[in-house]
Structures are given as structure tokens and as C-alpha cells.
Amino acid sequence: MIDFHSHILPQIDDGSQSIEETLSLLQMLSKQGIDQVAATPHFYASHQPLARFLEKRAEAYEKVMSALQKEASFPVPDIRLGAEVWYYPGVSRLEGIRTLQLDGTRLLLLEMPMEPWSAYTVREVLDLNCSGALTVVLAHVERCLLYQDASVWEQLLQNGVMMQVNASFLLSRRTRGKALKMIKRGQVQWIGSDCHNLTERAPRIGEALDVLRKKLGDASLADFDALNRSFWA
Question: What is the rounded distance in angstroms from the CA atom of residue 157 to the CA atom of residue 122?
């Protein structure tokens, strides 16, 4: 299974703060049945130049790979580099934005503001997605559902924008029904742990996948995984 959203790279954002923590997170993901994980550290264009972010990300990744070669005693998930890109007006014009796509794919994880989106914002997301260069995946959309009219989600989905939810959306009794309904209807294409650390934001994606299997069946889970891998390859 694939974890599409994580903060496992050390000392690059508010996620893992050490190599040791990263290795522990990877081991936890492995035990939960994850064999592919997207490393998606936060990218804020207002905080640092894109080139510097890419440099720091590469350095963190190399440290992880070096440590894994020396210390890993578990099946290590394949790590794909990407980013969780914070939306801002004009993001579609960011020079080099394609370097933030998940390696080997056209997928760009975009974090949206938790507020009602203007017509301009929706239009820019659609323009970015329809440019032919990439496919937008909106991060943890459950945080934004209540702020938008249903027609906004329908417009985005009809134009090929993809949706990712966090494992917690499936684990909360308050939101589980909504999450399952969205997945069953094809309104959600990705699940992520959004793990940051080993304590209050530890990976629980295995539990979420168990809920999906139990409620919708093995065949639905297999279909979901197959859909993921068709974009991942």
C-alpha cells in the first residue's frame, strides 16, 4: 500500500527531527503494510527560495538513505520525494513548480487554506491542473470540506483534480462514515498518514486501511491500491 503524505525527512520542516526518528517512522509504516511512501515536506514559497528547499530536501534524503544502508533491519518502504506545497495566489506561476511534483509522477500535493475559497482560487487550481504539465492532489481535504459549497468539489473532481485524506478521517467515529462514502463514490483517490513524529502525530495509516477493508471489503481496498499504483508508476 502507498502512504501519499508524510513528513519523514529529518530536520526540514515540523516533521521528523532526527535520523533516528525517521528510521522509527519508516519501520512503523513498514509494519502497517506500507511499501511506498511519499516524503512531502512543507514548501512555503514565502519562507525560502525553491532552489534552497530542493537542496535541503536532497540533503535530508541522502542522510536517510545512508542511515538505512547501515542500520535498517526491516523491509524499507520505497521513498519518493515530493512536497506539500502551500497554496498562495499566483502559485501557478511559480517558476520551477514541476520540480515539486512527486518523483516519477505528474502529481503535485497542494495544501489549501481552511477558509471559503474565492472564484479566483478555484480557477487557479483548475488552471494549474489543466495546464497539461501536472495533476493537482489536494492535501487532507477533510479540513476544508465545510468551507466550500458542494458544487466546488464537483467542479474540481470533474476537471481531474484529485483528493487526499488523512488516516485520521477514517479513524474518527465522527467522520468515518463521510470518509467511506467519499471513497466509495470515487471522490477520494489517496490516503496519507501525514505522520510528523512518534507521539501525537505518529503514523496510523495501517488502522485506516483496516477500516477500509472491513467496511468496504478486500476487493475495494485492492481496487484503491491499484488506482494509486497506476498514477505512481
Answer: 12
DSSP string, 178-211: HHHHHHHTT---EEE--B-SSSTT---HHHHHHH
Query: Model-level pTM greater than 0.85?
Result: yes
Query: Has residue 131 got a pLDDT over 90?
Result: no
Provide the residue type at 221 as one letter: L
Q: What is the Cα–Cα distance from 96 to 187, expressed in whole angstroms?
A: 29
Dihedral sign for Cα atoms in the order 132, 146, 177, 172:
positive
How wide is the angle at C-alpha 98 spanned by C-alphas 94 and 99, nearest 5°?
100
Classified as helix, coil or strand, 104 is coil
Q: What gap in Å lies between CA 25 and CA 174, rounded to an integer?
A: 27
Q: Among the residues of the chain, which ranges form H helices?
A: 19-31, 50-71, 119-129, 150-158, 167-171, 176-184, 205-216, 218-232
Cα distances (angstroms) measured from residue 129 to each of 106, 110, 126: 10, 11, 5
Q: Cα–chain-centroid distance for residue 221?
A: 18
Mean of all residue pLDDT scores within the chain: 96
